[in-house]
Each structure stands twice: as structure tokens, then as C-alpha cells.
């Protein structure tokens, strides 16, 4: 049942929905009992129909520097586990990295979540709840969630309807009223749903995992690339840039001796030069049990220098939360580890 259906069933006027949105998504109430705008009777009715929390906190870790926090949640309905991260940047941004699945079917070889396989999709409420959890905490410090990135567990384009529904909660002026430009969907590059996103006129930002400059190498790092070729991916990327005139981010995890050599950087230049893109180089974050290694600093600098000489806009990402396994590619619930 939706909130709208609940109100209709209880013969309530339409302004009740506005009151509900205000309390949940702007005032960030923490329990139905705090929703005193409504009568006790109506509050009790909504509490019977809707669990206030779709997720329960199992563990909450903070990095030594205090700039990153990771929360292990359990789904109220079936106790499956997922993780969410917040990064508190020095410039004041508070970025929540949300999960959209429990596990992930994509199986990228460098990613801890990939080892879990697909367990289930999260609902739009469960995705929104991860952000609301941190929004309620930040409110107490007079701060806000400034950015949301779908870079946690799961592939957003394989749970697209729920992801788009959660984005409606984040961006609707009567709900969280965030600008779409503050929301990033990160994808391993699945071509069909990317085209759907293009048709839907998605207003947020896109980050596409490239990780290799050739089809062969990409397939060896990302099994999904077998059915989503680099050439098809670049064709849809060009279409998206043409339609929206908006910069796309490419993610490139640097894996020692696998994709971090000068020849890889030169091929990468050929692939992306002249496109309206920004390349994020991500030094690999080690995962226990994986044999992959982080590129040496000198190698990263040499790789970056090739891109600089070709004037390809790029940055080398500074990892946050490595000490609590909260950095890119490190999320996997304790049970799996
Ligand atoms: S990197 Fe993303 S898409 Fe790849 S396995 Fe991990 S969670 Fe899935």
C-alpha cells in the first residue's frame, strides 16, 4: 500500500500527504510518535500499516580520521544485510554512498560485493531509508546530506525502477528537494538500461566503470563486458553526451600490472580523447583474500602524466574509509567475509 492509498482508505483530505512528506523528508522525524501534526488515532493507524524503519542498524563504524562512517543495516522484512557509507568532505559536502541491492550479480573481479553474488533488490523505500538515516543524524549537527552516489552494493541499472523511485523521493520539491545534479548513478556499463535512462531523460549524473581501454582486457576484469561490448558502450555514451551536453564520469580502478601501464594509458587516451568526460583514476583498495595489488605511486603518476599530456581531464581519487573497509570496492557484509 502507498501513502496515497492509505489516506484514501481512511477518507483523509489531500493536504495530509503534504504534512506527511514534510514530517518524513524535511523535518526528519525519527518515529511515528513524533508526527504530532496528525491525531493520535491517525498516527496509530499509519503505524499499523507502515513500519517506520525498513532497515535496522546492526553496526556503525567510524574511520580513524572521522571523515567516513559505515553502517551495516539489516532489512526489517528478512534480515538480509547491506552496507551504506557517508563521506564527510573537508569542503562541507556530505556524500551518502547508497546500496541498491544485497550482493551484486555483476561480479567485477576487484570488488568484494561481487563475491556475494546476487541476493536481492532493495525497494525504493529501503534505498531512501539509507539516506534518511544519515539526514536525521546530520540534522542534529545542523548539517545536510549534500550528495548521493549509487556506488554501494549492487548495480543500479539492474534495479532501475526502484532506483528511479528513490530518486523521486530525493528530488521531489515536496520531499527532500535535492537537485538532480547532486545525485550520481554509477554503473558497470550495461548498455540496454543505459539507453532506457537516456529515453527517460535522467537529469542526474552518470559515472560509468571503464577499468580497461580494450574489449579483451575489460572482459577479463568485468565479466559483464562480454555482453556489453566497449564499442556498444561508447556509442551509447556518445548519444547521452549529444542529447544532454552533460559531462559523464568514467571510473578506472588502477590494478598493479593489469591495467596501469603506459600502453594502457595511451589506449585510454585514444578511446576517450575529445569526449565531454572526466576520468576518475581509483587506486585499487585491497580486499582480504584477493590477490590483486594497488599500483605503485610512481606508476599512478606516470599513468596520470600520459593523460595530462593528452589533456584528458582526470583526477586521482583519494580513498576515504579504507581502515573500516568502506572505500570503493570494499563493501561486503560481514557474514559474507
Ligand atoms: S563494482 Fe559495482 S557492479 Fe561491479 S561487482 Fe561491485 S557492486 Fe557490482
Q: Key features?
A:
ten-stranded mixed sheet, alpha/beta, 337 residues, 2 domains, two-stranded antiparallel ribbon, binds iron/sulfur cluster, TIM Barrel, 33% helix
What does this structure look like?
It is globular and about 70 Å long. The mean pLDDT is 93. The protein starts with a helix and ends in a 21-residue tail after the last strand. It folds into two domains: 1-52, no CATH class; 53-324, Aldolase class I (TIM Barrel), CATH 3.20.20. It is built from ten helices and twelve strands. The protein is α/β, with parallel strands linked by helices and 337 residues long. Helices cover 33% and strands 20% of the residues. The protein has helices spanning 3-9, 15-25, 40-49, 124-139, 160-171, 191-199, 215-221, 230-244, 262-272, 297-309, and strands spanning 55-62, 68-75, 81-88, 94-97, 101-103, 118-121, 147-150, 183-187, 205-209, 248-254, 277-283, 314-316. Iron/sulfur cluster binds at residues 104, 106-108, 111, 113-114, 153-155, 188.
The fourth-level CATH homologous superfamily of the largest domain is Aldolase class I
Strand order of the largest sheet: 1-2-3-4-7-8-9-10-11-12
- Strand residue content: 15-25%
| Percent in helix | 25-40%
User: Which fold does the CATH topology of the largest domain refer to?
Assistant: TIM Barrel
- Give the number of helices: 10
Over the alpha carbons, how many angstroms does the gyration radius reach?
21 Å
Instruction: Quote the average pLDDT.
Output: 93
Outline, from the CA principal axes? globular
Q: What are the distinct ligands in this entry?
A: iron/sulfur cluster
Low-confidence stretches: none
The arrangement of helices and strands along the chain is HHHEEEEEEHEHEHEHHEHEHE
